[in-house]
């Protein structure tokens, strides 16, 4: 008689110290657990093998990406119910969480017996979607390019299905939750342009330009001459075609270039939207100093960046294993206070900080809805594993923004000249200065 689900539930309760708050369905078709909740589906025995060999977030991630583990029902609700049992305790995220208890020899023996394993007990191979950034110093030019390629060079057609016509891959600016993603993304781009006080003839640098949406909007609407830089070959090719199709090739240049390699400043304004998360704490002072040097006196920087909550011991910060292995290799988050401090230490005068946390939750939910609506195409355009990565990470991030575990902020900073004249109006919140 099928019984794997009940035995799995017992094993989970021993590891977690409390019953799972969701129902389980095992590879033999059996189910066990509270009715009316999302169902955590272990499609193959290999899901448990992955957890026994890599207890915690990485084992779960590999099982999810490989399709060994799934959710039947509301994914958001499943993640919300499971978060405190698997990853969080005392308000702080722990890398391995309570599943680390599966390292206990007695529990591992129970798991092996349930799987009917005999020696040698070899771990399953990671899914092919796991990042391989290679050797070299972290955040070197070469390694950063490989890390960016892992995330962004997965096919422009795939991103079209997820992001929609705007092709903007950062937090939108919503008038209300009932608004459209396209309107919210256009509002965000325009907000950045107004904060930078862009005007015809000015020179704009967009660091991490993605598929070119910011430079296109700035050139078309505000008459600037714009340079957009990216490390992604696929993004650059797509952006150049958009620029040519818009008839703006005489005013917009797209480069495959690292911000550390730019030598043709100064610029009147710099936008960095959703790029600084890739810089890394060890390089952030260099990033801030480089952007300061690229601005003319009186020029403005708009730095749009995800932030995490501060820790009592900042040296204990670690990147989530799922995010680091499958989503943003070598990416790092910092508290907004540290970002502001490092911009100031580089010489900037920080004039405004606007928190957009709720806006990013709405944006991510829209992207998840787009992905689910175009699921078959997304799988065809990339791989089942890649599509599963994006669905999980975007849904989980939406919940993290909603719960105030992470935030996102627009920091407006000025390279204030020696005269002290910032060029900003006395009242900045209307952003007409």
UniProtKB/TrEMBL annotation:
InterPro entries, per the entry: CFA/CMAS, CMAS, MeTfrase_dom, SAM-dependent_MTases_sf
Keyword vocabulary terms for this entry: Lipid metabolism, Methyltransferase, S-adenosyl-L-methionine, Transferase
SUPFAM superfamilies: S-adenosyl-L-methionine-dependent methyltransferases
Keyword Transferase set for record: yes
Domain of life: Bacteria
Gene3D superfamilies: Vaccinia Virus protein VP39 (3.40.50.150)
Segments for region (Disordered): 119-140
UniProt similarity note: Belongs to the CFA/CMAS family.
Protein's name in the database: Cyclopropane-fatty-acyl-phospholipid synthase family protein
Organism name: Streptomyces luteosporeus
């Amino acid at each position: 008689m099928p019984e794997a689900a009940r035995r799995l539930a017992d094993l989970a309760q021993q590891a977690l110290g409390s019953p799972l708050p969701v129902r389980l369905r095992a590879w033999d078709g059996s189910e066990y657990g509270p009715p009316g909740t999302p169902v955590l589906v272990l499609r193959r025995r290999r899901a448990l093998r992955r957890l026994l060999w890599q207890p915690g977030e990485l084992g779960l991630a590999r099982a999810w990406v490989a399709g060994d583990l799934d959710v039947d029902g509301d994914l958001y609700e499943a993640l919300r119910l499971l978060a405190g049992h698997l990853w969080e305790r005392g308000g702080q995220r722990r890398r391995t969480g309570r599943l680390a208890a599966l390292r206990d020899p007695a529990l591992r023996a129970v798991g092996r017996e349930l799987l009917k394993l005999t020696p040698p007990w070899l771990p399953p191979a990671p899914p092919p979607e796991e990042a391989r950034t290679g050797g070299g110093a972290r955040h070197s030019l070469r390694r950063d390019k490989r890390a960016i390629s892992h995330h962004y060079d997965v096919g422009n057609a795939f991103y079209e299905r997820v992001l929609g016509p705007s092709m903007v891959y950062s937090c939108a600016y919503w008038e209300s939750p009932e608004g459209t993603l396209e309107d919210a993304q256009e509002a965000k781009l325009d907000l950045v342009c107004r904060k930078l006080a862009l005007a015809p003839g000015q020179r704009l640098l967009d660091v991490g330009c993605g598929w070119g949406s910011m430079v296109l909007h700035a050139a078309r609407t505000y008459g600037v001459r714009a340079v957009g830089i990216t490390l992604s070959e696929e993004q650059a090719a797509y952006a150049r075609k958009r620029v040519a199709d818009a008839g703006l090739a005489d005013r917009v240049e797209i480069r495959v270039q690292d911000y550390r390699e730019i030598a043709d400043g100064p610029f009147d304004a710099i936008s960095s939207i959703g790029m600084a998360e890739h810089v890394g704490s060890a390089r952030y002072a260099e990033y801030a100093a480089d952007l300061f040097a690229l601005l003319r006196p009186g020029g403005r920087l708009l730095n749009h960046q995800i932030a995490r909550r501060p820790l009592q011991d900042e040296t204990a910060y670690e990147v989530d294993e799922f995010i680091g292995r499958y989503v943003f290799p070598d990416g790092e988050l910092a508290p907004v206070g540290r970002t502001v401090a490092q911009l100031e230490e580089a010489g900037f005068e920080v004039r405004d900080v606007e928190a957009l946390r709720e806006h990013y939750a709405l944006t991510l939910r829209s992207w998840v809805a787009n992905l689910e609506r175009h699921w078959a195409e997304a799988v065809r355009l990339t791989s089942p594993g890649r599509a599963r990565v994006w669905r999980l990470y975007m849904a989980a991030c939406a919940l993290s923004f909603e719960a105030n575990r992470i935030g996102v902020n627009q920091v407006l900073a000025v390279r204030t000249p020696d005269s002290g004249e910032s060029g900003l109006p006395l009242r900045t919140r209307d952003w007409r200065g």
